[in-house]
Design a protein that fits this description.
The chain is α/β, with parallel strands linked by helices and 287 residues long. The protein has a single domain, classed as Zn peptidases (Aminopeptidase, 3-Layer(aba) Sandwich), CATH 3.40.630. 37% of the residues lie in helices and 18% in strands. The protein contains nine helices and nine strands. Strand 4, helix 4 and strand 5 form a beta-alpha-beta unit.
């Protein structure tokens, strides 16, 4: 009888130990836990791409900008981007998340239309294509400003306060850092007789890699290379100080309008940027 009680007692202890081990074993290391980027919410996703919102304070209905809409090829994918823009800054991810990871930005100044049109052309071009890495495209950086075709955001030039946390352009930089982006091109348009007032590629002299990228695009497009101005809050300046090699691509066009072929040149800047990065090569560089 005592022997039976002893056996039962031993079995109870064994099963109790197993239960305790299974329920109180150490958690997996923190580095294996995947967390979403700061302030990013997925809006649309498929096997080929993902559309997310990286800033929900900038939403606007860009269909109100008739000059822009008249030049956009509104495929189902572009329609998704436009709808997403009503809720904030959209970012489309094309690729499998592998390296290299690069970013293309347009619309930091909402009234500069050629780069935004070019970005939508690029999205249509890349959709379904083989990508050797990952491409993040922000076609409308501040949709609310694109909708009204203005360059000013909250009474400030958004490309002078990129170093200030919480601003729309700073959130783009935070996203690029979070994604481990190594190359970035920020595309703009410039009015005639303004600064810089011509088609050009702007590099940061404090980053030799920025000049190398600028010279590559210059060699392909013949747009001259110039140094960035002395402004601490410029998107590409902040990026170059944070190990993200960056340049600005400027095309000549009046604000709120579209000078003929200016969107084609902005598109070429983007295509040759991707060519330099090695993530996508297209023998036909015209849209």
């Amino acid at each position: 009888m005592n022997k039976r009680f002893l056996i039962v007692g031993v079995l109870i202890l064994i099963f109790s130990g197993i239960f305790i081990f299974e329920n109180f074993k150490k958690p997996e290391p923190a580095e294996t836990i995947k967390t979403p980027p700061v302030n990013e919410s997925v809006a649309q996703a498929s096997l080929e791409y993902k559309i997310s919102i990286i800033d929900n304070s900038t939403g606007g209905d860009i269909t109100n900008n008739t000059v822009l809409m008249d030049r956009i090829n509104q495929t189902p994918l572009i329609t998704e981007l436009i709808e997403t823009s009503k809720n904030g800054t959209p970012m489309i991810t094309i690729g499998d998340g592998s390296r290299p990871r690069v970013m293309i930005v347009a619309g930091v100044h909402g009234g500069e239309l050629p780069p935004q049109i070019a970005a939508t052309k690029l999205v249509n071009t890349l959709n379904g294509k083989k990508i050797n890495g990952t491409i993040y495209i922000i076609p409308f950086a501040i949709p609310r400003d694109t909708a009204t075709s203005t360059r000013i955001h909250n009474k400030t030039d958004p490309n002078r306060v990129a170093n200030i946390p919480g601003t729309p352009v700073n959130k783009i930089i935070r996203t690029s850092k979070n994604k481990n982006v190594t190359l970035l091109v920020d595309c703009h348009s410039t009015r005639p007789h303004d600064i810089p007032g011509k088609n050009c590629i702007i590099y940061d002299p404090k980053n030799p890699k920025s000049l190398k990228l600028a010279l590559y695009i210059n060699n392909k497009t013949k747009s001259p290379v110039i140094k960035v101005g002395n402004y601490s809050g410029v998107l590409t300046t902040v990026c170059n100080r944070n190990n993200i090699t960056s340049v600005v691509g400027e095309v000549l066009s009046p604000h709120g309008k579209l000078q003929p072929k200016s969107d084609h040149l902005a598109y070429q800047y983007m295509i040759y940027f991707l060519d330099y990065a090695g993530v996508y090569t297209n023998d036909n560089k015209k849209p």
